[in-house]
Amino acid sequence: MKVGSWLPTCLTSDDSAIPFPRSPSHSDNRGSTTSSSNSSSDTSYGGLHTNPSLQTLPSVPSLQYLFPETLGSSVSHVTVTSIKPRPEHPITCIAVQGNLLYAASINEVNVYDRQTSALLDVFNSQGSSSGSVKSITFCDGKIFTAHQDCKIRVWQLTMAKKYNFLTALPTVNDRLRRFILPKNYVNERRHVKRLWIEHADAVTGLAVNKCLIYSVSWDKTLKIWRASDMRCLQSIKAHNDAINAVTVSGDATVYTGSADRRIRVWAKSTGEKQYSLMATLEKHKSAVNALALNADGSVLFSGACDRSILVWEREDSSNYMAVTGALRGHGKAILCLTNVSDLLMSGSTDQTVRIWQRGVEGKYWCLAVLEGHLKPVKSLTAVKDEEESDVIWISSGSLDGEIRTWKVWLSKHSSPSSSTTNILKWTLGIN
């Protein structure tokens, strides 16, 4: 794995949304990762006003209430279930599909029953050469895994409840279709060429919208794949440095976050078949590590090594977004984000998970700080309970090799600032 250094001195932009020319192209260089800040962590509500992360991005106003107890919010009790795959390796990503929890531990993908925490299957256990699994997603009944060896692997769950390997992207057929023509090759480095459909470095993120799969890589490219025949439809030189995150809205607008400190917005113009650049969002002072969208795609959350979560909102019906403010409290880099209903969950190098709730006038408050992990929280999932509408399940995967799960009850009561607000209640015994 190629690891680059991160410099604490970063450029600042005064423009939150800057249109760029629409010029998709191919990538020919390798990407790099970034390391997080080493600032101290303060997880208490009362300490938020002294937390060093409050000094980050001073040009961006805060959107949060610093003292949620004045709004009537409280935490009653917290206990968790814990899963530790064997052997104990860092949890690189987790994902949920139905009643199944998928957890990647280096190259292996462990499949658990979410209700009982029972281990159901392990796949890719023989594929140590594939490197660590960076992302897991689902489309058309298949499982897609992104790997450090530059490939995307496709798996199928059989009738016997086992996972069979189907193919790797790009497929052999896709390669054969293109390898003859010189125009299908791009320069990877001096005297070395590759097909434009191939990623040249670790695939770090996957996102799905309807029949399309979007992949991003440390090679600085965004690629779009068609799920039906596994063909690569487009490759875009999307950033000037490694791409760490990708998310897509219901209307197929794609957002990519990079170590170049930028978020870029991609969409198809009316009548066009190819994606092109719609806007570049610049406010973060260091590498962007995580992205999440709210349910209708009107609000984008971004987390970076600068310890802040920025909130971006659409100014109108267009794809342009402007930053409205920041959520601060984490003491170190933001590594992962996920959104359910009006709740945002964030995981950090400071080893904690924070739960944020959107309130009146676009303000947020931190409802809880979940502690217990011994190393950075790398991945998060959150899903609503199918039977209990006021219950949300949150799972976190950490580099300490542990997966923790919280069952969260949401109940309403009156508060000084609004007619109703949520209280988080936590009860779940350790298995």
From TrEMBL:
The keyword Repeat applies. InterPro entries: JINGUBANG-like, WD40/YVTN_repeat-like_dom_sf, WD40_PAC1, WD40_repeat_dom_sf, WD40_rpt. Pfam families: WD40 (PF00400). SUPFAM superfamilies: WD40 repeat-like. PROSITE patterns: WD_REPEATS_2, WD_REPEATS_REGION. Keywords: Repeat, WD repeat. Residues 17-51 are annotated as: Disordered. The keyword Repeat applies. WD repeats lie at residues 236-276, 281-322, 327-357. Residues 30-44 have a biased composition (Low complexity). Transmembrane segments: none annotated. This is Protein JINGUBANG. The lineage of its organism: Eukaryota, Viridiplantae, Streptophyta, Embryophyta, Tracheophyta.
